[in-house]
């Protein structure tokens, strides 16, 4: 990894964020500069996220020696029946110097969830009685006399109808609003991004089962990549410190007497 390659990765990340915001979100660069009724929907927020991508890339480039560093893999002992991942994917999903490419996905998905969550948290229809969710469930479970119902699977319709009949919307609406906000916040600050992205996909899947497409297919597909690249997807964020501290199920973190994962920081000599 060299400085020039880091600049290239930074440019790719910035362009990707612009394209995602332009193609899959409605005018994020053209909205009000500051929206006091929807902070996360303000245009300044979009430009701030773009600036963070560029700043992260410039910082990484400055930390690299002029000669660059080697990201070649050493010899891997062959294991019977084991297939090897392509070099590009191994770098993208496991090398902190390539983690810049995860920033546009994280920022775009996180921004979408944060905006959706903020809108619901500000709405009394979601936070005071759940009438908005009641209306959504009522519409989703309705079976028209002609044509196809919104929900394809009868078991899911029965589940929503059960929740509707027992007035679960009174508390479930708050759970959804808070959950969407926390998923967005977790992805934006890079805190336990795999868990945040997973719960995001759960909500996307639930909305799709209820017959709502909207942005759910896009967010679901992009979130899957975040989950696959969890080891370094949150490196430019709190996961740089959380993963070494907390560890993973198969490797204890420093809090529990181990080393955790993702312990190498940009600017430090490799521990290999």
Write the layout of secondary structure elements.
Blueprint: H1 3-23, H2 43-63, H3 87-94, H4 103-121, H5 124-127, H6 131-141, H7 154-165, H8 169-189, H9 193-209, H10 216-228, H11 230-233, H12 239-246, E1 247-248, E2 251-252
Antiparallel strand pairs: 1-2
Helix pairs in contact: 1-2, 1-4, 4-8, 4-10, 6-7, 6-8, 8-9, 9-10
Overview of this protein structure:
- This protein has 272 residues and is mostly helical.
- It is built from twelve helices and two strands, in the order H-H-H-H-H-H-H-H-H-H-H-H-E-E.
- A two-stranded antiparallel ribbon has the order 1-2.
- Helix 6 crosses helix 8 (169-189).
- It is globular and about 70 Å long.
- The model has no long low-confidence stretch (mean pLDDT 90).
Defining traits:
mainly alpha; 272 residues; 12 helices
Brief rundown of the structure:
With 272 residues, the chain is mainly α. It has 12 helices and 2 strands; from the N terminus they run H-H-H-H-H-H-H-H-H-H-H-H-E-E. Helix 9 runs antiparallel to helix 10.
The number of helices is: 12
For the termini, the CA-CA separation is: 16 Å
Rg over alpha carbons: 21 Å
Largest sheet: 2 strands, antiparallel
Q: Residue share in helices? A: 55-70%
Shape: globular
Low-confidence stretches: none
Structural class: mainly alpha
Mean pLDDT: 90
The count of β-strands is 2
């Amino acid at each position: 990894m060299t400085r020039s390659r880091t600049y290239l990765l930074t440019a790719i990340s910035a362009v990707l964020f612009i394209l995602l915001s332009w193609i899959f979100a409605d005018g994020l660069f053209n909205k009000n500069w500051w929206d006091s009724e929807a902070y996360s929907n303000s245009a300044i927020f979009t430009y701030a996220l773009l600036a963070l991508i560029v700043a992260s890339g410039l910082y990484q480039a400055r930390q690299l020696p002029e000669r660059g560093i080697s990201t070649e893999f050493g010899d891997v002992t062959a294991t019977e029946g084991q297939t090897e991942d392509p070099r590009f994917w191994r770098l993208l999903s496991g090398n902190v110097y390539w983690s810049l490419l995860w920033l546009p996905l994280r920022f775009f998905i996180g921004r979408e969830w944060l905006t959706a969550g903020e809108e619901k948290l500000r709405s009394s229809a979601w936070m005071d009685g759940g009438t908005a969710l009641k209306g959504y469930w009522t519409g989703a479970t309705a079976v028209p006399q002609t044509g196809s119902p919104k929900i394809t699977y009868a078991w899911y319709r029965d589940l929503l109808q059960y929740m509707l009949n027992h007035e679960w919307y009174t508390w479930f609406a708050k759970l959804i609003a808070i959950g969407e906000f926390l998923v967005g916040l977790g992805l934006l600050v890079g805190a336990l991004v795999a868990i945040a992205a997973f719960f995001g996909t759960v909500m996307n899947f639930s909305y799709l089962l209820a017959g709502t497409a909207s942005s759910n297919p896009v967010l679901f597909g992009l979130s899957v990549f975040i989950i696959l690249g969890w080891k370094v997807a949150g490196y430019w964020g709190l996961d740089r410190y959380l993963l070494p501290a907390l560890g993973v199920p198969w490797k204890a973190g420093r809090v529990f007497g181990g080393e955790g994962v993702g312990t190498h920081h940009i600017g430090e000599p490799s521990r290999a």
